[in-house]
TrEMBL record:
UniProt cross-references to InterPro entries, sorted A to Z: Memb_transporter_dom
Membrane topology: Multi-pass membrane protein
Protein name per the record: Integral membrane bound transporter domain-containing protein
Compartment(s): Cell membrane
Alphabetical keyword list: Cell membrane, Coiled coil, Membrane, Transmembrane, Transmembrane helix
Ranges where the Integral membrane bound transporter domain occurs: 402-530
Stretches of the chain forming a coiled coil according to its record: 567-594
One of the record's GO cellular component terms: plasma membrane
Length: 774
């Protein structure tokens, strides 16, 4: 709670300082200066857009460059078009058309304009430059009018830089260091809990510890997301310090590797109720203590890494871990022992994974690499232009043009407030349209009401009005972290209050508030209308289709498991599967907040169960890939591919794969049939049979005994292979690595079969949910 309050107050203070700088410069400067920055509203908007969401000095510097790019991209065409047409000849329809055309050009995928900040600032400038020109008519200067808007944008950006410098700089490097400390502490705490879970006999305590691990994993996810945010700002702060930059990147890679292996340990612990007593002994506990010390040293040596020194651990510690892992020379006899062996396999990865910095290349290689990257950029640009999707530009063009036109119809003086919310909330992909519009509308109303109350209480005291924004900034800094409103609603609330309390000479606050609320609803309604035209498919429908698209790569990834070297493309298939699962996750999140209207409610419980199983399969296959790589290298070194037992082992692997792949193929056909084509073909969901698919699912084809027998046969052949390959006592270390790798592969197979059954059950629930009478 202390850290949450500190972060919230820091964010509120920086935002308040940026807005105070804009307010002071726009309200208290001489008329000659204030005439140049004649769009204080957009200064506030630009400042809030840049400084929101954990901004650092690096983010502000990056925002300067993005704002400059957006201004250059917008102001040149605006000056030329206003000079050519003449502001006095603009009409409502002409203004809306100019905004639509300019928005279409801006949203096109030009080089270096892919950042959302560029497009939001550029679209906001487009709305202001044309709508205000239409409102002022012949009194508009075609040259100075756009330049004043550019100056107002620069004021907002400058305020952000100053706010993040005073009273002391908020550096991304410092924030990264703090997050790194918290993350390493989180990892070591999880490892300590894993040690307790290994020997915990009380199930109640084990459940409590697992709950604690889940809580720590949630915190770890938030810390990684913060680190990802700070990485971008860090690039702008430490460009001259390449060694410092590479140092932090190596630290991040190091903790990501450690975290992945910790996640594997967690999978092992959550897949079993208890471990066998013959494996849990004092040697195991001592080995885990040494491993904890090893991990602690390897992720807590930033100073050594910064000086270029190698990351080392005491020799006695490393020797103890090696001897401990060498003690496992026998393949487990049953599937019940597989979790502890998989746990030790992940421990081996933690111990053996090299935590060294990437070697620096020579100047000549850098030059060749830069030349290659330059050619690749041009090739990518040409390919992008050839394959440009014109739907996003057309969609943005229509929504913005329609919002401006209807806003001007309602009120000529306040018409810009219909288009501006649409412009500054531009998103490149799908979003939860109704939810986003609802949050923005509620935030706008909340902020506007607070602004009107502030003006009513402190009507004659402008400094006090500006000061009254501070508690609102504190409130909205916590509001944007809530699930109820999030960043969209909080930013709308901030802008709504600032535009009233931070300005003068806009008429009675209540009238302005009502006009702005109505115009905002007009703009958001136009945005929803265009979204529904271009994206009529609901998120729930898209989630159903994406589910069937996930099952294909899942079957291909399982089918890529092979002991034969050079015959697997598991890595590429796994990347495709991970991408599909992440896209499904986004659609499920959107579908959960999507209003049902007259449609069938979204079955979020079954979909979240599916996502959990799919995510675990992705993680299991990642570990399976590492186990297979080592086994392929070792079998090739020993010439084992010519032996019959290795071929027999690969046959057992193929049999287990076939069980899963046939089920995936069957489920894919069922999902397509039920979700997309809506056919009425008879289909026995439990047996997985229909007129189009005759294979059996795992749950009906094997049963619990069949799964245990399949994995038992696999382990039996594994024991034969290990005994024939490594009978010499001098190869104890290699033999232990082979034992752990084969056991890890067996655990991955067993867990994947179990997760396949979970996927079958979830899909059955979804199909029956949508077809209750079938």
């Amino acid at each position: 709670m202390r850290g949450l309050w500190r972060e919230g107050l820091s964010s509120a203070f920086r935002t308040a300082l940026a807005c105070a700088i804009v307010g002071c410069l726009s309200l208290y400067t001489p008329p000659s200066v204030s005439a140049v920055i004649s769009f204080p509203a957009f200064s506030y908007v630009a400042a809030i857009l840049i400084i929101a969401n954990h901004a650092t000095l690096g983010d502000a510097l990056r925002g300067c460059c993005l704002a400059l790019y957006a201004t250059v991209q917008t102001m040149g065409p605006a000056i030329f078009s206003l000079w050519l047409i003449g502001p006095g000849r603009l009409s409502r329809l002409g203004t809306a058309g100019a905004v639509a055309v300019a928005a279409f050009v801006v949203v096109l995928p030009w080089p270096y304009s892919g950042d959302l900040m560029v497009k939001r600032l550029a679209l906001g400038q487009i709305v202001l430059v044309y709508v205000v020109a239409y409102d002022n008519g012949v009194h508009t200067d075609p040259v100075m009018h756009p330049l004043r808007l550019g100056a107002s944008t620069a004021l907002g950006v400058l305020a952000c830089v100053l706010a993040l410098l005073l009273p002391y700089p908020r550096l991304a490097c410092s924030q990264m260091k703090e997050s790194y400390k918290l993350l390493t502490k989180n990892m070591l705490t999880r490892l300590k809990i894993f040690k307790k879970l290994i020997s915990e006999e009380d199930k109640a305590n084990a459940i409590r510890l697992i709950s604690e691990v889940k809580f720590l994993r949630t915190k770890r996810t938030k810390l990684f997301s913060l680190i990802a945010l700070y990485q971008e700002g860090m690039k702008w702060e430490i460009v001259p310090f390449k060694n410092l930059k590479s140092h932090w990147l190596s630290l991040i890679e190091r903790v990501e590797e450690v975290d992945t292996n910790l996640r594997g340990m967690e999978l092992a612990l959550t897949c079993t109720n208890s471990f066998t007593n013959n494996i849990i002994n004092q040697d195991l506990k001592h080995g885990l203590n040494c491993l904890e010390e090893h991990v602690s040293l390897t992720i807590k040596q930033p100073k050594q890494g910064l000086r270029g020194a190698s990351l080392t651990v005491p020799e006695s510690n490393a020797k103890d871990i090696t001897l401990f892992l060498q003690s496992f020379q026998t393949i487990p006899t049953t599937h019940k022992e597989l979790p502890i062996f998989f746990f030790l396999f992940c421990a081996q990865l933690l111990h053996k994974k090299p935590f060294t910095q990437a070697p620096t290349s020579s100047h000549h290689s850098n030059r060749n690499e830069n030349s290659h990257k330059g050619k690749q950029k041009w090739a990518n640009l040409i390919a992008t232009l050839r394959n440009t999707n014109f739907i996003p530009p057309i969609k943005s063009s229509l929504s913005l043009g329609l919002a401006v036109f209807l806003g001007l119809v309602y009120s000529k003086e306040n018409g810009l407030w219909a288009g501006l919310p649409v412009a500054v909330s531009y998103v490149s992909g799908r979003e939860a349209t109704f939810r986003a519009a609802n949050l923005k509308a509620q935030g706008t109303v909340l902020g506007t009401v607070y602004g009107v109350l502030g003006c009513f209480l402190f009507e004659r005291f402008l400094p006090v009005r500006l000061l009254s924004l501070l508690p609102w900034f504190i409130f909205t800094s916590f509001l944007q972290r809530s699930k109820t409103y999030g960043p969209a609603g909080a930013i709308s609330a901030v802008i709504g209050a600032v535009l009233i309390l931070g300005r003068e000479n806009f008429g009675p606050p209540s009238e302005f508030a009502i006009a702005r609320i109505v115009e905002t609803f007009i703009g958001l309604s136009c945005s929803i209308f265009v979204d529904l035209i271009f994206g009529p498919k609901r998120a729930s429908t898209c989630a159903k289709r994406k589910l069937s698209q996930c099952l294909g790569p899942l079957g291909e990834s399982i089918g890529s498991l092979s002991l034969l070297a050079g015959e697997t493309d598991l890595g590429e298939n796994l990347k495709r599967l991970k991408t599909q699962v992440n896209e499904l996750k986004k659609l499920v999140v959107e579908a959960e907040v999507e209003p049902n209207f007259w449609f069938l409610p979204f079955n979020s419980v079954s979909y979240n169960k599916l996502l959990g199983s799919l995510s675990r399969v992705v993680e299991l296959l990642w570990f399976g890939e590492h186990a297979l790589k080592f086994l392929q290298q070792e079998f090739k070194r020993c010439g084992a591919y010519e032996k019959e037992d290795v071929n027999m082992l690969n046959g057992k692997l193929e049999h287990a794969k076939e069980l899963i792949c046939s089920s995936m193929k069957n489920l894919e056909e069922i999902s397509r049939m039920k979700f997309v084509e809506k056919k009425n073909n008879p289909c026995d969901l439990e047996a997985g049979k229909s007129s189009e698919c005759n294979t059996c699912m795992v749950s009906s084809g094997l049963g619990e005994d069949g799964i245990e027998e399949t994995i038992g046969c696999f382990l039996q052949v594994c024991r034969i292979v290990v005994d024939n390959l490594h009978g010499d006592e001098s190869e104890k270390e290699v033999k232990s690595q082979v034992v752990l790798s084969l056991s890890a592969l067996g655990f991955c197979l067993f867990s994947c079969i179990r997760e396949t059954i979970e996927i079958e059950e979830a899909i059955t629930e979804i199909v029956q949910w949508e077809n209750p009478s079938s």
